């Protein structure tokens, strides 16, 4: 709650200056201001001009921004103002501005937002600047900015006060502007391949499309509980049934699970579905998409992520989950029975929950323990067990496994994809099995979606589907090691 008794000396002085502005007939919080240029445009056009060339050109500009530095001596001074593209120096003289406008500058504080009209020049030191002929106060900052090298060094505080972080931190601004470029590049990639971007409901009455613990809310008018969606999968596949053939959605998902450097309760994914395709088709799309992103955004297919070189120029490695486990442990799960799998888990100190005492869960737990942290270069890990893949088509070679893969890069999962299950009878049996798991304590298990089964009964063509984590992809391309730094407003514990 606001309390004047808690104000610092600086905050008191700034409020006094606010009142002085009011007495002068100036709105401390301004009004609209028309700009003709910005710091980037000015640098692009005039950075290479000499001081003498600029004097001859007599080019003028009107810009606006936040005061970031200020130094004054007598009746002249300099300041840097910052707009969305960066900072530019302003040169101010009383004889150019007049006493009243120069006094506005003199009494200004770091953090104030101002408008400047003037001539584009270079100083004797060679710095591109604007020699002000008009100074307009636009907005008073009632709180001081943190000191450049001492304030907001605590990352947790920076994430809690992202608006200050963006003012003070060039790297945070770089990331903030890069993320939407990545998303737009992903959209362009799928649009160019004939996919249609669609929207599906965030509030869903059935838990499905993934295995995850949900958030639950209540709709008063309908008197119904709803889940915040954990996946967009089932509605998108209904659109494939409807004949849209190639659809995708970029949207927020919500999972009521743990938080760490790569997990946030709400996060963004793209899910895409292509009729008449399969798992192999999804591999080609995902590999091409990552090559498209690195080429168009970074101008290279070989990137450095957290001091690890990741090579997207080569074909991605493909390996079956069982073969990957065999490489690390010598165990060939293709020849292991359910009972033997439980015995192997015990022998390798893998603790099993009640619902995990089945072949598929045990194979996956072996993978997580022995293989996952070995996958550095882009790798398609395929052949996931049926028990952990309720929506993927069974493998024709071994019905205990499915035509599903995950993309791993630098030990982390970036994508999940499969040949979609389009057999409604098999799908119903899978849902029934998930319900039994729920009874055994698996609160991430799917529920029975009768409407989805009914949709499949109308006939869904053979289809390939994929899901890609947008946040992790942005982290990779921006070279950021925490999801909290790629999200503008991550969820944080209360202080």
Describe this structure as you would to a colleague.
Helix content is 36%, strand content 25%. The protein is α+β, with helices and mostly antiparallel strands and 495 residues long. It folds into two domains: 142 residues, Nucleic acid-binding proteins (OB fold (Dihydrolipoamide Acetyltransferase, E2P)); 259 residues, 2-Layer Sandwich (BirA Bifunctional Protein, domain 2), CATH 3.30.930. An eight-stranded mixed sheet has the order 6-10-11-18-17-16-15-14, sandwiched between helices. Strands 1-2-3-5-4 form a five-stranded mixed barrel. A three-stranded antiparallel sheet has the order 7-9-8, with no helix packed on it. It starts with 8 loop residues before the first helix and ends in a 9-residue tail after the last helix. The mean pLDDT is 94.
- Overall strand count: 18
Task: Please name the CATH topology of the largest domain.
Answer: BirA Bifunctional Protein, domain 2
β-strand percent reads 15-25%
Query: Shape from CA axes?
Result: elongated
Structural class: alpha+beta
CATH class of the largest domain: Alpha Beta
Computed Rg: 29 Å
What's the architecture of the largest domain in CATH terms?
A: 2-Layer Sandwich
- Poorly predicted regions: none
Largest sheet: 8 strands, mixed
Number of helical stretches of at least 4 residues: 17
């Amino acid at each position: 709650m606001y309390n004047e008794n808690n104000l610092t000396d600086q905050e008191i002085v700034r409020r006094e200056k606010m009142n002085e502005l009011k007495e002068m007939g100036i709105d401390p919080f301004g009004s609209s201001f028309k700009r003709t240029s910005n710091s980037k445009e000015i640098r692009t056009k005039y950075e290479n001009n000499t001081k003498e060339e600029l004097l001859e050109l007599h080019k003028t500009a009107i810009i606006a921004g936040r005061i970031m530095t200020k130094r004054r001596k007598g009746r002249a001074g300099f300041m840097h103002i910052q707009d969305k593209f960066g900072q530019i120096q302003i040169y101010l003289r009383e004889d150019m501005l007049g006493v009243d406008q120069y006094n506005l500058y003199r009494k200004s504080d770091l953090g104030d937002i101002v408008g400047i009209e003037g001539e584009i020049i270079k100083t004797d030191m060679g710095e591109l600047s604007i020699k002000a002929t008009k100074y307009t106060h636009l907005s008073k900052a009632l709180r001081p900015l943190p000191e450049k090298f001492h304030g907001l060094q605590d990352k947790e505080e920076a994430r809690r006060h992202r608006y200050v972080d963006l003012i003070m931190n060039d790297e945070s601004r770089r990331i903030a502007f890069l993320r939407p470029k990545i998303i737009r590049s992903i959209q362009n990639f799928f649009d160019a391949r004939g996919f249609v971007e669609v929207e599906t409901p965030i509030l869903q009455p059935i838990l499905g499309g993934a295995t995850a613990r949900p958030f639950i809310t209540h709709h008063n008018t309908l008197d119904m509980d709803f889940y915040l969606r954990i996946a967009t999968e089932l509605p998108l596949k209904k659109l494939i049934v409807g004949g849209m053939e190639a659809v995708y959605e970029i949207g927020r998902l919500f999972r009521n699970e743990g938080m760490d450097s790569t997990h946030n309760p709400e996060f963004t994914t793209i899910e895409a579905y292509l009729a008449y395709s399969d798992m192999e088709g999804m591999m080609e799309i995902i590999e091409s998409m990552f090559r498209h992103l690195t080429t168009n955004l970074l101008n290279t297919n070989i990137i450095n992520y957290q001091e690890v070189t990741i090579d997207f120029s080569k074909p991605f490695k493909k390996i079956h989950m069982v073969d990957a486990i065999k490489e690390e442990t010598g165990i060939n799960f293709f020849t292991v029975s359910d009972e033997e799998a439980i015995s192997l888990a015990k022998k390798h100190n893998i603790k099993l929950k009640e619902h995990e005492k089945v072949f598929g869960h045990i194979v996956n737990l072996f993978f997580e323990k022995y293989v996952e942290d070995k996958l550095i270069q882009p790798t398609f890990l395929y052949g996931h067990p049926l028990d952990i893949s309720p929506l993927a088509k069974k493998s024709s070679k071994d019905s205990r496994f499915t035509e599903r893969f995950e993309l791993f890069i630098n030990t982390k999962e970036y994508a999940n994809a499969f040949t979609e299950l389009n057999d409604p009878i098999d799908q119903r049996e899978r849902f029934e099995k998930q319900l039994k798991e729920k009874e055994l304590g698996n609160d991430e298990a799917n529920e029975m979606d009768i409407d989805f089964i009914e949709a499949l009964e109308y006939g869904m063509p053979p289809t390939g589907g994929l899901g890609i984590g947008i946040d992790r992809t942005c982290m990779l391309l921006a070279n950021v090691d925490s999801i909290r730094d790629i999200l503008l407003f991550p969820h944080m514990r209360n202080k």
